[in-house]
Every structure is written in C-alpha cells, then in structure tokens.
Amino acid sequence: MDLAYEYKAEAISKDLCRFPAMASTSAIGKASMSTWFTISQLANAVDVPTTTVRFYERVGLVEPEDRSEHNHRLYSEESVRKLKFIRAAQNIGFKLDDVKALLSTPSSTAASCREVQSVIEDRLANVSKRLKDLRRVQRVLKLSLEKCKETERADCCYVIETLRETAK
User: Fold this and answer.
1) Is residue 122 part of a domain?
2) Between the chain's N and C termini, which has fewer beta carbons within 10 Å?
C-alpha cells in the first residue's frame, strides 16, 4: 500500500475520533450561529456538488439549521464539519450507512470505540469478500486473454464464442 495513502488514512481516522455525535437542531442553538451558509456556499466549502448535499439531506446525514426570509436552506459551521467528516469517512472506505452509525456514536467513550470497531470489522469483512471476488474475476480474465491469444483467428474469437454458447 502507498505510504502517503496510509498516512492520510491515519490522519483522517484521527479526525473521525474528534467529531462529536450528531446534534439535534435544537441543541445547536440558533442564536449562537454567527456564520450561515446557503446550500451552494456549503457545497463549495466542502468541495462537493449541491446535489450531494441534497442527497445527504434526503438520507438524513445533514439538515439545514434554519431558513432565510426567502425560504432558502441555511447551514452552520457544524454542517461544514459534518460534511467534511462524511467525506473523510467515505475516503477511507466507509459507506453511508457506516457513516450514519459513526455519526450517531457518542465520542470519547470505550463503548463508542467498541461500536466503531464493529463498524470497521463489518467493512473489512465486506472488503475481503469483494477482494476475493475481484481475484476470481482477475483469474478468469487472465485465462480468457491467454486462450484468446492462443486461438486468435481472423474469423472467430474463442472468448466471444464461449460467451455466445453460455448465453444459449
């Protein structure tokens, strides 16, 4: 594995530990918010398309904390941190369901560490299975390429003929 990637993954995992559990809108306290972001400003701050922010809203990962007088969604710095957390988690292999679990886990407790370990173990099992499947596909493709090179003819390809026979 690339050393730079390992370093980045380690740094991201440290950031994941610092992120607090998802707070409800009421707990954030509208009066304490000094900086508001529209959906496009939020997307730009995290370097994602606005469609990604809307998608995260639909699946319950982020929500606007307020609305403008023209009914535009308004987000706080907390939303910026939450979106960065989501992206960091995805970058090291977590799926959105995993991210939901991580966001709902209270930080800095032994119980939360066990919950995170469980999420990581599930992801590792899934990755192992996918790697096994990919190795099988790799073997089949290598064998197909070898057979194709061996039986190369102008009028027929062994692989295409085999696939056609399988499709019958």
Assistant:
1) no
2) C
Its domain, for residue 13, covers 3-108
Does the model's pTM come out above 0.70? no
Which of 110, 82, 108, 77 is CA-nearest to residue 96?
A: 82
Domain at 17, CATH number: 1.10.1660.10
pLDDT tens, position by position, 121-159: 999 999 999 999 999 999 999 998 888 888 777 677 878
Q: How many domains does the chain have?
A: 2
What is the structure's pLDDT at 8?
54
Q: Is residue 126 part of a domain?
A: no
Task: Considering only the C-alpha atoms of the chain, give the largest distance between any 2 of them, rounded to a whole number of Å.
Answer: 76
Cα radius of gyration (the chain) = 23
Q: What are phi and psi of 59, to 5 degrees?
A: -90, 5
DSSP string, 91-138: HTT--HHHHHHHHTSPSSSHHHHHHHHHHHHHHHHHHHHHHHHHHHHH
